[in-house]
Each structure stands twice: as C-alpha cells, then as structure tokens.
C-alpha cells in the first residue's frame, strides 16, 4: 500500500500536512473526509528505487513466478524460495537483484517493498498483486496468477511475431527493390530517352522526377522511417493532446484499428479479472488498469469509470458512452455487476479475446501479403509503361 504526503484543511479552514498509507488518492480523500478534513493536495512518497541495467526477459519472470508458487505452496519460506531461484538462475544481474531482495526481507522488509526497489525488473502490476496477496496471505495464488498472465502475454507476442514475420520480410524486400529500381534501373532508360530527344508523356516525366529525387537523396529515404518513428515518439511523450490524438487515430485505422482495440480491451479484462480475484478493491483495480491498457482513449474511460464507481454508480454506465467498448462486452459486464460475478464475466470476455485475436491477426496478415504484391506490380507496371510509351512513340514515328 503506497504512502502519501498530503495537505488538507479542517472545518475551520486550518491547513494540516501529514502522511499516511492509502490504496490510492480516492481512498485517501474518503478517509480524510471521515475525519472531517478536505484534501487539497497529495503526492505519493518516493521510495528508494534502485537504478539497474539488468536485462530480465519475460520468460525469466515466468520461471521466477512458477518456482515461487511451487516452493511457497510446498511450505518453503520466502527467503529460502528466493535463494533457490537465485541458485538456479544463470543470469548474474538477476542473481544480484534476487540476493538484494532476500537480504531486504531478512532485514524485516516486506516482499513487495523489496520488489518495488527494482521497477525496471518487476512491473507495477506484479508488485500490486503481491502487495494484496501479502495482506490476504495468499502469495501462492498471486504468483500463479502472475505467471499465467505473463505466459498469455508471451504467447500473444509470439503469435504476432510469427504471423507478421513473412509480410515484414516481403515488405522490406519490396522497399529495397523499389529503391534499386529508381536509383539504378530508371536512370539508364532516362539517359536513352534523353539521347533520342523524344517528347516525354506526363507519366514518364513524373517517373523520371521521382527517380532523380531518389537518386539524389536515397539516404534520406532510408533514414526517414527511423526519424519519423523517433520524432513521433518524442511528440507523443512531450505533448499529451498529441498522444491522445494518436491513440484515437490508432483505434480508427483501417484493417489494424480493430486488432489494436481488441488487444487493449483484452489487457483491460485480463488485468481487471486478475486484480479483483486477488482481493484488490475495484477502485484500486481500475486505477492500476489505466496504466496497463496501452491506449489513452480507453484509459480516460477507465478514469471516468473510477470516478463513477466512487460515486456509487457502475462502470458500464460510463463505458456505454464510449464507442470503443463493443455491445457484447458491455452486456457481459452488466450481467457481472448485477449478479456480483464481475470477475467471472471478465474471464469469459478475456477468454473470448484470447481465441479471437490470433485469428484476426492471421487474417489481416493473410490480406497484407497479396496487397503488397499488388502494390509491387502496380509500381513496376507504372515504370514499364512510363519507359515504353515514349519508345513506342519513337518507333511509330520512325515507321
């Protein structure tokens, strides 16, 4: 549970400053109101976080969680379990992290406080689940939940990489071919056409112009994708309104927008189900899910839903006003909220996305392959027509 430094005023308008533990700012505000105070400002206490360049892969975290769940379930203590994982690991950096965590726990700190010192190794969601599990005394189930979620994420990433590998290679090869075509092939024909002094049709002039540009600035065409990517990343990080606009555009992209939306909603339902099942209050679960969905449009909807739940309303009342949430998902969530089985409904939704997302991705990649080939044929055909039109005109005048 995080610690907050806060400023508040009492009924007489007198200002008070102090610190206390709370699930989140909403919970803190509620606790202070019960005592007759009104919250002015609150900041989370900065913990002693250690900067580490340890490269910890997802499979390493999965193995760590599986081992911890098995050993804790068999009655082995936390420190002994961590030391066992440490001895089995072949990554020196991860061994150093685990050794420090074991030392922290031995010194009297909690497991979650030790893990939170390494935010680049242990994600926030993992720390919050373990935090809740330490209070409920159910660490075994928490580590199992985390390993299941990480395995699902790893499987999804592998599926995406596998189905996108061939189209990506084809697209790169096509890009190189087009660059070579306009840099070396077209200029040779341009010299021939100029030497015979034949009138050039508009399409030929356009192709020659493109060829001259590519030949003069070919290095810019190679650097442009990288520069655009880095520039967009900087702008998104620097300007929040641009980040929101970019995320809104992503959801409306043809072909890919539907998959992006499904991935974000899948993250939301997966994480929400895990958090609620682990005993974390719904307000804190919503707060955590905001940072896990990967899209600001959906994140804003979750923030509004968090405020609605705090006022005694339901999440689905807010989600209905956002077109990004499909009717089927909303109906299942309504049933879950009305029957008190929200976790079960979220699990059903996430299971459906687990089946649907890989099929959707494979379908899209299957469409992309012929599209790339059609694009290549179109470009080559245009160049051929542009070159042979003046040659045919020359042959006709000679004949």
UniProtKB/TrEMBL annotation:
Gene3D superfamilies: Type II secretion system (T2SS), domain F. Keywords: Cell membrane, Membrane, Transmembrane, Transmembrane helix. It is found in: Cell membrane. It is a multi-pass membrane protein. It holds the Pfam family T2SSF. The chain crosses the membrane at residues 165-185, 216-236, 372-392. Signal peptide: none annotated. The keyword Transmembrane applies. Residues 64-187, 268-390 form the Type II secretion system protein GspF domain. The keyword Cytoplasm does not apply. Belongs to the GSP F family. This is Type II secretion system F family protein. The lineage of its organism: Bacteria, Pseudomonadati, Pseudomonadota, Gammaproteobacteria, Alteromonadales.
């Amino acid at each position: 549970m995080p610690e907050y430094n806060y400023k508040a005023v009492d009924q007489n308008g007198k200002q008070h400053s102090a610190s206390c533990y709370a699930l989140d700012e909403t919970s803190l505000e509620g606790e202070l109101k019960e005592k007759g105070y009104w919250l002015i400002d609150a900041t989370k206490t900065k913990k002693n976080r250690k900067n580490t360049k340890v490269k910890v892969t997802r499979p390493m975290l999965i193995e760590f969680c599986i081992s911890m769940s098995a050993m804790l379930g068999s009655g082995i203590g936390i420190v002994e379990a961590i030391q066992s994982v440490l001895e089995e690991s072949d990554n020196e950096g991860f061994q150093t992290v685990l050794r420090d965590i074991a030392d922290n726990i031995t010194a009297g700190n909690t497991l979650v406080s030790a893990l939170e010192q390494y935010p680049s190794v242990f994600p926030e969601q993992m720390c919050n689940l373990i935090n809740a599990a330490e209070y409920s005394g159910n660490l075994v189930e928490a580590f199992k939940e985390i390993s299941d979620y990480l395995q699902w994420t790893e499987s999804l990433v592998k599926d995406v990489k596998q189905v996108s590998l061939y189209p990506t290679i084809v697209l790169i090869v096509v890009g190189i071919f087009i660059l070579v075509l306009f840099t070396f092939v077209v200029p040779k024909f341009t010299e021939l056409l100029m030497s015979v002094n034949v009138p050039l049709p508009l399409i030929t002039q356009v192709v020659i112009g493109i060829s001259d540009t590519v030949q003069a600035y070919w290095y810019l065409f190679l650097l442009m994708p990288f520069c655009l990517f880095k520039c967009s990343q900087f702008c998104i990080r620097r300007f929040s309104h641009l980040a929101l606009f970019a995320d809104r555009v992503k959801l409306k992209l043809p072909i890919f927008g539907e998959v992006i939306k499904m991935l974000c909603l899948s993250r939301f339902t997966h994480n929400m189900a895990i958090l609620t099942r682990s005993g974390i209050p719904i307000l804190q679960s919503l707060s955590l899910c905001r940072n896990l969905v990967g899209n600001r449009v959906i994140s804003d909807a979750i923030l509004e839903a968090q405020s609605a739940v705090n006022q005694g309303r339901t999440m689905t009342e807010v989600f209905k006003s956002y077109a990004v949430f499909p009717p089927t998902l909303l109906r299942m969530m309504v049933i879950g909220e009305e029957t008190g089985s929200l976790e079960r409904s979220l699990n059903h939704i996430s299971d459906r996305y687990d089946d649907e997302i890989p099929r959707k991705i494979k379908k899209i990649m299957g469409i992309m392959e012929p599209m790339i080939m059609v694009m290549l044929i179109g470009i080559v055909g245009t160049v051929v027509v542009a070159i042979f039109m003046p040659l045919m005109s020359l042959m006709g005048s000679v004949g």
